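Protein record

Derive tokens from sequence
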Amino acid sequence: MQKTLTDNIEEHAIPLTHENDLDLLVEKIGNAKIVLLGEASHGTSEFYQIRAEISKKLIQEKGFTIIAVEGDWPSCMEVTRYIKGYDQRYESAKHALQSFNRWPTWMWANEEIADFAEWLKDHNSSLPDRQKTGFYGLDVYSLWESMEEVVDYLEEIQSPDLELAKKAFTCFEPFNRNNEKYAVASAIYSEGCVEEVTKLLTQIRRNKEQYEDGEESGLSLRVNALVMANAERYYSSMVLNDEQSWNIRDLHMVEALKEILDFFGSDSKVIIWEHNTHVGDARATNMIDNGTINVGQVIRERNNPDDVYIVGFGTHSGTVIAADEWGVNMEVKDVPPAMPGSWEDMMHRTGPYNKMLFFNDENRPLFSEIIGHRAIGVVYNPAYERYGNYVPSVMAERYDAFIHVDRSNALRPLILQQVRV
């Protein structure tokens, strides 16, 4: 009798009952230098906790020193300054996480990240700077914050590039930090600032050696300038072409990662924390049908296969932090039982417990069918999830391993009232 998908899951899945069970995952990761850890939502506590435990093991046992996340560079850099001891202003990780003051703040300003950041600070305390682990943001959204960082830094050191930076800043000033207003002006009326930000980025890269003055200031300057250039492209394209803006964003994240690796050296090891939709290879989903790429795909394409390891995450039911629409206050929402026939439903059918599944050359054919795989964003309506929250996927090609949390719980935010969109 031919085995069913649930038969194959039951045969190959391994219970995940204790953090020590993750040792097997670390063993499977082998000598990979880029490990991508996904999440099926931006508001599930267990995803953050398990990624933290995996990261701790990789840092301690395999020498990983870079955590790169789906967050803004300026805010994440404040966490790095705290955990590496560059800045004594912060009394605690929770204090440093106050820098995440742009919606959705709960993604990084939460108890789970605070606990992990305190562990990182303690781990770093006895190490030389080059061996300390940092926490870096790869995302493209921080146009205004990155612009301020660039101007402030160049002004502080009295750089001759300051005038170019001020010119770019002046170009954006009429839009009053309003991304949508800038997007319309740039895309429809051709009143954008692409020339200014491109010139600035080119000049900063040309004068790279002038900005290596310790505490990663030069790296921060280059990435913030890169954010300015790519954020301008992102907002200019988002009005007219969603697919293009998605690709600009994910390619920016890859480019920002390259800046980090160039700074620390090609032998550096990095752990990436992002949503499954970014880390799970887009070629194994319906994203490829409309020309959409993602971080996981590009990193696999540009690196030796043995150097890259991708872990997806999912849950059958529980609670999650999300919002009804973009920019409004977060709330705890119920995650209903997974849709019948979905990947999460199949994982649950084999037993209502947490488990890991590893894909390899021998078992990949057993998990080669296209199946719906749940994805929850910062905006989420459980009543309508069957109409847009399941991504058709070939799971064995999308990931190298999968972690299933059967019943999950909402993230624990530090800030209940969002202060700026």
Notes: The domain at 5-71+270-408 is CATH 3.40.1660.10 (EreA/ChaN-like  fold).
